[in-house]
């Protein structure tokens, strides 16, 4: 239990990507953006700070449930899970990827409502499943949104 567990309040930054591994394990990857706001006392205005983007990986029933819930770009969400910072090399440069292996993901009910329907649970992840998650995170790292593509939080 020495893992870093975090909670993220943000919004879906890109359409989720759903797949089923060759082992039959459902997998869903999505980008979540968080844009902090700070109050500037000099101007008496709220200011947006730089947006942080994280890759969120969902497995098994969570992947199926998120996929069935049809989260769309801009949907406000809450995510909890295990934080992973992965280092990799691309084009001769070392890069870092912030990823969350989600344990829960749902709509931010401060900003809307939801209709809950319970489901059943699944089994363990294979090494191939984890490699698929890393490949999906690498795809997200290549796709850097421009400021006009970023939906603003409500």
Automatic annotation (TrEMBL):
Listed name of the protein: Single-stranded DNA-binding protein
Domain of life assignment: Bacteria
Family matches, as CDD domains: SSB_OBF
DNA-binding as UniProt keyword: yes
Region feature (Disordered): 113-154
Annotated keywords: DNA-binding
Organism (species): Actinomadura meridiana
InterPro entries given in the database record: NA-bd_OB-fold, Primosome_PriB/ssb
SUPFAM superfamilies with a match to the protein in the record: Nucleic acid-binding proteins
Pfam families: SSB (PF00436)
